[in-house]
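Design a sequence for this backbone.
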């Protein structure tokens, strides 16, 4: 661990939070002289303080230890690079448009890997010119159901959460740009249908 890099990162993050050394020290129940030593590279935080320091500064412990954040390359906000995550414990759905480290219910989440639809996950897409009416012939039991669907274009994501004991059908606006549909089955994973308009049948 490079104490100089760690100290520089702590200094930067503390300034971003608008905190003085004393304010940070008080939250950690240590002296401001200790914080000063860290920021001058004359020592590193004790491991027992890393959890609190991470929470106060809003940065993962691993990043503090590395002494750098390593931001992602800018991707111009292209939502077609979207990644989906679902917590298997609580069903929380999250997305990112680039590399991300996400966790929920104490577990690190891995991005869902989209696959081509099989015969058990076919969709029926109807349109009246303004909306898509999408239906899946899929069971909606508590242990096996469609959890969410998302319509994705280059600049937006429209996400619909579905629940057990409901019908696996929903409507989505028909967007001007070419779009892809993602559907997540709690048992078999994430499926992708692209481009969606080729599946649509006019009502």
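Sequence:
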């Amino acid at each position: 661990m490079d104490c100089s890099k760690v100290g520089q990162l702590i200094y930067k993050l503390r300034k971003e939070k608008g905190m003085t050394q004393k304010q940070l020290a008080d939250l950690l129940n240590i002296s401001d002289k200790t914080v000063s030593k860290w920021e001058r590279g004359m020592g590193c935080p004790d491991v027992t303080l890393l959890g609190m320091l991470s929470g106060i500064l809003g940065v993962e412990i691993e990043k503090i230890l590395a002494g750098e954040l390593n931001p992602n390359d800018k991707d111009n906000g292209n939502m077609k690079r979207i990644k989906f995550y679902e917590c298997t414990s609580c069903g929380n759905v999250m997305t990112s448009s680039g590399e991300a480290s996400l966790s929920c219910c104490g577990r690190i989440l891995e991005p869902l890997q989209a696959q081509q639809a099989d015969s058990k996950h076919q969709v029926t897409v109807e349109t009246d010119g303004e909306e898509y009416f999408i239906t899946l012939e899929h069971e909606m039991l508590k242990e096996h159901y469609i959890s969410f669907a998302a319509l994705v274009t280059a600049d937006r994501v429209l996400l619909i959460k579905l629940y057990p004991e409901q019908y696996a059908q929903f409507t989505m606006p028909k967007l001007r740009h070419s779009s892809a549909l993602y559907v997540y089955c709690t048992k078999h994973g994430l499926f992708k249908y692209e481009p969606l308009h080729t599946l649509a049948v006019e009502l």
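The chain has a mean pLDDT of 88.
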